[in-house]
Amino acid sequence: MAFALPSALSGRLARGSSGDAQLIRQARLAGPMPWVIAIMVALTVIAAAAGLALSNTARSASDALSGGVTVQIVEANPALRDRQAIAAAGRLQATPGIVSAQIVSQDEIERLIEPWLGGGVGDDEAIPVPALVDVRLRDPVDAETLGALRRLVREVAPAARIDAQSTWLKPVFGAIDSLRWLAVALVVLLGFALAAAVLLAVRSALGVNRDTIEIVHLLGGTDAQVARIFQRSVGIDALGGGILGLLLGVVVVSFFGRRFGDLGAGLVGGGALAWHDWLVLALVPLVGALLAMITARLTVMRALRRML
């Protein structure tokens, strides 16, 4: 004997209206699951913000140092050291493609080395401090350019050592790159964890509503209609938990952003989040809700094929 689906029920399932959820009351992620999603989204926002800040830091430092070269005049004789520094700066200033070549004052050098060697080092003849020339090029420094500058400067300053400023921070850039990939890995793992949590919750809801789902099928309901009920309900709960997690994550990111901002300058100063970074973070709960909905639909469709 065939069962006929009542017209009101059939129309409601076909339209996918909000009243569908009343047919399967436990389709929503009951219990602590929305809070679990909120925590996962908050952690994802924090990890994503860290990755974006590290990317900004590396980009800012690379841009600042890409055209920088430092000339060190390593000479124990102070008079000869000063003459070579002046000669090197003059030769570089007259070279096409060089924006500036400035001799770093002795006072500034002492301020730079004071945290490590203490004050008054420049007056101690036993510890000769090299003269420094800060050079800025119009274009980024490559190996060929650096070699040409070495040959040029050593003609007038045999004691000169020339290094690209970016090479000093290569280990730092390597560490930043590793941390950035770690942040990406954490975001991916948290995405898998969210999908796994939704999968378990949906399976539990399917078990609770097994009898109701069988009745809906006997009345003419399809797998897609049942899956749509779970998909929409899960999406609403996941979006609510995601928004809560976003707010929590933004509070944490803002707190640490102010703390690091108090450091003022250096590498940390270039890691501030731009408006487009905040836009990316705002998309996290939407992506999380979409992932939860897709996971719920696939889980329900697969389970129904096995169940019925």
UniProtKB/TrEMBL annotation:
Keywords: Cell cycle, Cell division, Membrane, Transmembrane, Transmembrane helix. It comes from the Bacteria. GO terms for cellular component: cell division site; membrane. One of its GO terms (biological process) is cell division. The chain crosses the membrane at residues 35-54, 181-202, 238-258, 278-300. This is Cell division transport system permease protein. It comes from Novosphingobium kunmingense.
